[in-house]
Amino acid sequence: xxxxxxxxxxxxxxxxxxxxxxxxxxxxxxxxxxxxxxxxxxxxxxxxxxxxxxxxxxxxxxxxxxxxxxxxxxxxxxxxxxxxxxxxxxxxxxxxxxxxxxxxxxxxxxxxxxxxxxxxxxxxxxxxxxxxxxxxxxxxxxxxxxxxxxxxxxxxxxxxxxxxxxxxxxxxxxxxxxxxxxxxxxxxxxxxx
Length: 193
Hints:
By secondary structure, the chain is mainly α. It is built from seven helices and no strands. It is globular and about 55 Å long. The two termini are 19 Å apart.
């Protein structure tokens, strides 16, 4: 079984791609972005794929029930949000309420990140990263909701895209046990680099 940070790094790469796609779409605008039909499906498809790949990640490396529940909530909401946005991009879904699946997915993911980390911010690097990711996802949920209200705002769209880039940077820095800011709790285990 690979260490959990390997899964975090794979998702960090996917979040970085997702954030860069959203950032490019925010900069060039929907009209230019949607000229190629493949680009219209790029970020919703990536979100849907990430949700699907969370299902096996939910089952195999779990050490506790809270981890299983947290990863299950992420898998369900990411799959739902990706599928809903794919349906919106295709034109099969027409109700604007389907756009609420993205703030829901980010909000549930943020709460799950915070709930399944039972240690404080400075316990170790993994704890710090989980807290940073949880609060980043909750801020991203606010930006996703603001994007529904103000769909043409460049500032809101850029902030929404940068949420995923920041999440990727935080996940790339994940290690199981390593000091953060030169501090580590003695109960965290042996630090490694």
